[in-house]
Amino acid sequence: MMLPTPVILIIHQPRQAADYASILEKTGAKVHAVASFEEANELLSFLHPDLVLLAANMPEGDGRLYCQQIRATLVQPRPVLVLLHASDDVNERIRSFRYGADDVLGDPIDKNELAIRVLAHLRRRQEELSSPLTQLPGPNMIRRMLEQCLVSDRIWSALSIDLNNLRVYNEAYGDLAGDQLIKALGAILLGLAADSDFVGHLEADDFLFITSPEKREDLAEKICRQFEQVSKRFYPPEDIERGYLVATGHGGIRRRVPLISLSIGIVSSTTRRFQSYVDVLTTSRDYRYAAKQHPGSRWLGDHRQALGAGRKETHRTRILVVEPDGAMACLLQENLALEGYAVQVTSSAGDALSIARGKPHPDLILLESNLADRRMDGWELCRALKEDRELKSIWVVMATADPDQLAALEAGADVYLPKPFDMNALLSEVKLYLRSRTRVAGADL
User: CATH number of 139-243+257-308: 3.30.70.2740, 2.40.40.20, 3.30.70.270, 3.10.20.310?
Assistant: First the structure.
């Protein structure tokens, strides 16, 4: 696997700086050499070196004081500070450490010793900047890798990868089980990485994979397929058979949550010009969030932008309220209409099914389980909706006084809403659905 090129800044008098630069360039690092602290200040503001090699005695001042200044002014992760000191006096060298140097070497120093010591510091820095969970490069190394991609002539694609429904998985099985799932994903990504690819672990279940554009879709497909196979080992058989977990929300709301899956957002240097590494991360995450709205492990790439260029569509969310209590039906209709939704109301399961089959279909059905309709109660209506190929994508919120939330979810409801319910909790669920539907529509444009 490829890693970002280390950056070294040398601060020394011109002749010595050039000699040390020629030695360290052979280690594979990108080396910048300057002859004054003033020049170093200009570079430090944007260079972000991994290691600074500086002389203790410079014509303009004491290198030890400059170590102290770097420690005080540069935010983490600051560079490794290696001081070159001409004195053999042990006390002098100890004082250098007290000023803030991470290592003190002789000046001049044997070129082989210099190269080995610098490589050792860079290796240690790489370990410190890696994720403690997966041992993959962490956020700062990802930033360095993306910054180097942005200024290089190489064409590349970045895949933003994370797990769906990890919070619910952790609630059911514990954080340690979730960590094992994250480690498994990291191992899958590392196993698929070629020598020219990069894999990094940003945080929690958030990963970044950099590869060549011609491999992006095939790679995304392989990641999804392998994860789907591996993830089943992290569930007991009964949960695999049921096909979902139950999430508990505010006000006793229960939501049926699919088993854990992957979402991948893909961006490429061939489709747009990125302004910064932050631009790469946020854009790839936007596509990843859109992919999340589809069931199972999915990927979505920026190449799909061309499919709907210039197309805009406005959509007013349509809600069907199936409620036999006239006063409650009126209250629901009024509150939902005030939120800007188009609301229809009925007390009959048969009428509700006819309305749902009409065009356009409702986006959401708020359904009472106990209906007065003799032909069909709310449970049967919910099953009928979810068994219909055209209607099964309609979001069904089952409102019921039945304390068995699993009965509602097993009937096919997407959300269990215990009666009496809090109106704000209901409106929050509707808004949550609306945001997810909007993302899907945006992804399809």
Answer: 3.30.70.270
